[in-house]
Every structure is written in structure tokens, then in C-alpha cells.
Amino acid sequence: MEFFGRAIAKTRTVEFLPILLYYNHMSTQTIIFLSSGIIILLLAAVNIFLIFYLYRTNSKLDKLLEKGKIKDFKSILLAQKDRNDDLEEKIKEAFSKIKNIEDVCETTIQKVGIVRFNPFNEMGGKKSFVVALLDNKNNGFLISSLFIKDGSRVYAKTIKQGKPDYLLSNEESEAINRAMKSK
């Protein structure tokens, strides 16, 4: 058995022997030449990557500089600052106008209540009506129209904070209640 073990060991050595001899016979110039070739290929790959990256960066800069119309970044920054200042002023102005509109809306008619009725049970249909027109704070007025044989009579009453200045009929009270419930 020892004989077979030595033979296997010798064959393994014999297999690697040509490779070792090949490397031993390579001259220093050949090694330098091969390593220089590998380094040149790596540098060429890095160079191609950098050229592509430079092209991409230049195209982005062209967009930023509007294809050469703008010569430096200082003018870009100053122009942007001016635009921002203008926009801030316009935003302040818009908020001021919105506040004024909100203030005006508090006193505009926002709630409406309508009641149609027949003041005289034996005559005609519901041709008389009451309209209550109130703002957000329940201030406003009431218009009553009574249709009778001889014509039509119209009355107006002021309302402050949901309370009338004069005595109200049932229909007028109902119109005010409907107006205050509407939104």
C-alpha cells in the first residue's frame, strides 16, 4: 500500500511541475508586460466611465444654464432669489385678500328660510310668503308678503342675533328658525 501512496504523491507533483516550470521560465519583462496590459485595460475602463459621467453632468449643466444663455451661477441664484421674493409678496397679498373676503362673508347673507302660507283659510291658495335672510351671526331681515283681494302688502323687519325688533307672527318665527338651521 505504501507503494501506491508514493505513486499518487509523485503523479500530483508531476501534474503541477509543468506549471511551476512555466512560471519559473517567465522573464521579468513578460510579467511587467502582462501587468502593464491589465493596468492599461483597467485605466481605459475608468476613462470610459469618466467620459460618460462628464457627458451626463454637462448635459445637466446645460439645462441649468439654459444652453449657454446664463454664464454663471451667481446670476442664477440672484434671479431665483428675486423670483422667491416676488412669490412671497404675492402670497402675502393673497392671504390678505382672503382675510378681507372672510371678513366680508361674515356679514353677507348666508342663511335663508322661506315659508309659504294662506293668511285667510277660506280664500285662494298659499300666495303669501315670508323670507328670512340672515348672515353668519344671525343678523339680517325678514320680508313678509300678504296677498289679499285688494292687492299685496309687503313688510320688512330687522333681525339681530336671531331676535326680532318687532312682534312676529307664527309664519315669521318659522322662517327665522328655518334660516338659522340652514347653512
**Overall morphology:** rod-shaped
What's the total number of strands? 5
Q: What integer is the average pLDDT?
A: 82
Distance between the termini: 108 Å
State the order of secondary-structure elements, H for helix, E for strand.
Answer: HHHEEEEEH
Helix fraction by DSSP (H/I, runs of at least 4): 55-70%
Q: DSSP helix count?
A: 4
Number of domains: 2
Architecture overview:
The structure is a single chain. This protein has 183 residues and is α+β, with helices and mostly antiparallel strands. It has two domains: 1-74; 111-181, no CATH class. It contains four helices and five strands; from the N terminus they run H-H-H-E-E-E-E-E-H. It has helices at residues 2-25, 28-64, 73-106, 170-181; strands at residues 111-117, 128-134, 140-148, 151-160, 163-164. It has a five-stranded antiparallel β-sheet, with helices on one face. It is rod-shaped, with a radius of gyration of 49 Å. It starts with a helix and ends with a helix.
Give a quick set of tags describing it.
183 residues, alpha+beta, 2 domains, 5-stranded antiparallel sheet, 5 strands, rod-shaped
How would you summarize the topology of this molecule?
Layout: H1 2-25, H2 28-64, H3 73-106, E1 111-117, E2 128-134, E3 140-148, E4 151-160, E5 163-164, H4 170-181
Antiparallel strand pairs: 1-2, 2-3, 3-4, 4-5
Question: Short description, anyone?
Answer:
The protein is α+β, with helices and mostly antiparallel strands.
